[in-house]
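Fill-in record for Glycosyl hydrolase family 92 domain-containing protein.
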Amino acid sequence: MVKNKHKIVFSLFALLVFVPMNAQNATVCESKLPVDWVNPLVGTDSDYGISNGNTYPAIAMPWGMNFWTPQTGKMGDGWAYTYKSNRIKGFKQTHQPSPWMNDYGQFSIMPVTGDLKFKEEERQSWFSHKAETVTPYYYSVYLADHNVTTEITPTERAARFRFTFPETDKAYIVVDAFDKGSYVKIIPSERKIIGYTTKNSGGVPLNFKNYFVIIFDKDFQLNSTFNGDVLGNALEMQADHAGAVIGFKTKAGEKVNAQVASSFISYDQAERNLKEIGKDNFDELKEKGKEIWNKELSRIKVEGGTNDQMGTFYSSLYRSLLFPRKFFEFGKNNKPVHYSPYNGKVLPGYMFVDTGFWDTFRALYPFLNLMYPELNAQMQEGLSNAFNESGWLPEWSSPGLRDIMVGNNSASIVSEAYLKSGKGNKYDIENLYKAVIHGANNAGPLKAVGRAGVDSYNTLGYVPHDVVNESAARTLEYAYDDFAIYQLAKALNKPQSEIDLYKKRSLNYKNLFDPKYNLMHPKNSDGKFMEPFDPFQWFNGFTEGNSWHYSWSVFHDIQGLIDLMGGNQVFISQLDKVFSSPPIFATSNFTGGVIHEMREMQIANMGQYAHGNQPIQHMIYLYNYAAEPWKAQYWVRETMNRMYHATPDGYCGDEDNGQTSAWYVFSSLGFYPVTPASDQYVVGAPLFKKVTIELENGNKVEINAPENNDQNRYVKDLKVNGKTYTKNWLSHSELMKGATLDFDMSNTPNLKRGTAKEDIPYSLTNE
């Protein structure tokens, strides 16, 4: 996106990896644990101009409050770590959800030897990926200029560092609290440094601070602080840019250990968070971290894929377990408490941040509802707290309200969670319903909060192009969000008039359909279509895309869209044109030129199918609605094969907080949540020969496709619990009971399966 954007007992099992030898033969080449397949460097070969993920190696626990990453970029640069870089400036605690949103609550730690160099550009060291070990739970790198190896292993809110120094009288550790207001204090008698950083990119109250505490296992022989570029002997420094330097003599191979934790609440809470480490030494904590990641990643066991497919799957799964991050801490009574990024108060309860619902409502949150309903219930409580503390549901939180993207997709997040598992949880759904109704009928304090253009939308049935920018995108997303509210209102037995109102509004997408193009076309407030109109022009009424990308954003009523276009064959023809059209684009004054999403679509050579961005990612599955499911099967496999790899350039656009990864995870399983606020997943084609899903309720979903290989990408037959199943959709509630899906795969499409009317997935029109 452009942003203008837990001891665990682990049952060891072998994962069989198959590498194709000839047409359909495969052989076992190695076995690994799930975490050993993860490459946190996937997506790091990116920059401002082209995104191959725009990720950084997040050394963290699942959904951890604090992440750590090596820092190759300059202080304040959103591209904190880029694969092509060859020098490291420090090891940063980060809360960055994406380079476009940038960071907050950040500080860094850097070992130095020789002449004391504390400035970022002077202390940096050459490194090589050949001397770098990167896993979700452990990071190690050799800093060549300083002859020091740095190792990191984290908990949710704390971490251990281990520095292996050479023999020297000049060994130092620099703690950089960064600029924009920071403080450090060295306490030599306790081998401790404390401090805070206020550096942020917005979305924080005025009293925002990230308090940190670092405790070392070696006495300090040098104690210095710095103010910007000036180094002094004071033990305490408060400045725009404060930092600390400690020094000591070391023997060859001597290991200096540090424990670090932080808190958004106080120094006392940071000390409390430090207790997450307990009595574990570095290696013990590292092993616990490995067990935690294995436990979570092993919830989905995949077998029968190539090395690249296995690595890509588990790397994508890893990315799906990072955001939204826990922004709560455990107080004196060991109950959750949080600093509110909305009003600056310290309050009881859960809080989660760093996610943009425009991206993540599509697949990431449905994945959480499938695999982690209890955690998602905590997230819902956090959303209720956010509403209480700010008066609004956040659409993009980093950590508080940010004025980014369009739509009112918190409605989907809230509705889907309750519809799929909320009745079994205790969070305040009535308060959340109040919140979604408020958001649907009011413009917020920021354009990306509530609904911009709400008055026009509620009276005209669309957002006019001459009133609010990105009007067509807003209209289409508001219509789906109204459907989500309609579904929730029914589930909560709200008055019929209220139910009917949101059902009616969910059909507002029809108001922008232009039969001349068989596409969505922005309208002005006079009811006329905006002219001139070029369906290949980006941002002219749309968000990070054009009409060819956004016209499919009728997630809840594809049958209605088919009817508007003139039936199945015309609809299929339009879908086909997405791939057969040239990958051209036209810019608009809104963008100010070519943005990276345009180039990513162009160079992918899949026509107008811009998988690198979110609006069109579900479009492939729409062939199922028009009785040609084999085309969905073909293009799903094609996209997985071409657009995803377990390499630093392994994504085809921004990874975006787990959304693009969750697309791959779902598609690998063989189904996808086209309409999140419904009970259905639309069937595609599984990628692996076997998948075993361990559901949180103790049930299992087994997916078998023994004939799967690179050529056999079509579903010849599907049996569910032993019975032939022709439908192009699967029920979430039925899967939660446990199920066995047996796919018979073929290298030729089955032109008869899934073509009957009763096989078609849900659409509002067919209610």
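KEY FINDING: The two ends are 35 Å apart (CA to CA).
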